[in-house]
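Narrative progress, year one. The postdoctoral researcher (J.K.) led the effort to move from monomer predictions toward full complexes, under supervision of the PI. The following entry was the first complex the group processed end to end, covering 296 residues in total.
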Amino acid sequence: MSSLFGSDLGPDGMVSAPSPGSDDMPATDVLSPDSAHQTEDRPDFTAVVAVEIAVLLRVAYDLTGSAVDAEDVVQETLIRAHQGWDRFDGRYPRAWLLTILRRTFLNSLRRTRPALLADDWSLDRGRPAFGVPSSQTESAEDIVLAAHYAPATVAALEGLSPDHRAALWLVDVEDLSYREAAQVLGVPEGTVVSRLSRARSRFRAAISQEGF
Amino acid sequence: MMNPWTLLRCRWTARHLDRYLDVTLSEPDRRRLAAHLVACLHCRDNERNRRAIRAGLRALQPDVDPAAVRRLESSLRDLSGPTR
């Protein structure tokens, strides 16, 4: 089984959770409003992370394929982010959180591959469907959404290779930047750019064949 | 008829249009492409088509479960709460 994650799992698969703040500087000190570390250019942890929760949930669902697992992974991600906050340089917070999310996913679930990169990916499985229990695949929401999708779009997505589909999905559906998608996939940004370019070309060719 | 120079511009535009729509082109390239779009009906059609495809893909992004978001926000507040 060759998958994007399969080939890149090695180093990250071994990565342990970010360790808590060192003994002489507990993470909680950094977070306290009156802390000397809370400088003007270092925003509040809660404020930075709160606005990313929805994105984290969607991407976690992309990876796990399960609403319950997604929430668990995000929960753990928040804890690890909190522990690592004092080592975060403050740049690209979403990319930082997505890196932690990916490691959390790899460490906690030990999946062989993310749902997003599965060979048998389908829109029902691959799209986030929060509020719908993972075992319940024919919810009213599913039916409404399925009727809404242009069949050509679905076919074109399903026809892409897992690597290409993942890049397209994360950037064009989830609205992540190249950098953020690269963090989720554990590949260099340039790899995302080239996969995305090919994915978009093939997606366009596929849907134009279908008369979109 | 389209002259060879325009054709080259159109090919260049087609290759760079996605980066233009991603807002990741360099400023000189962005200006160059935008200027061509103003002048070229064919490339404007292409641009419109790609925007429509993007809108269709973006529409696949569903809302998250508000209850899950609230639970996680609550966890976040617990994490950040004063502990000393």
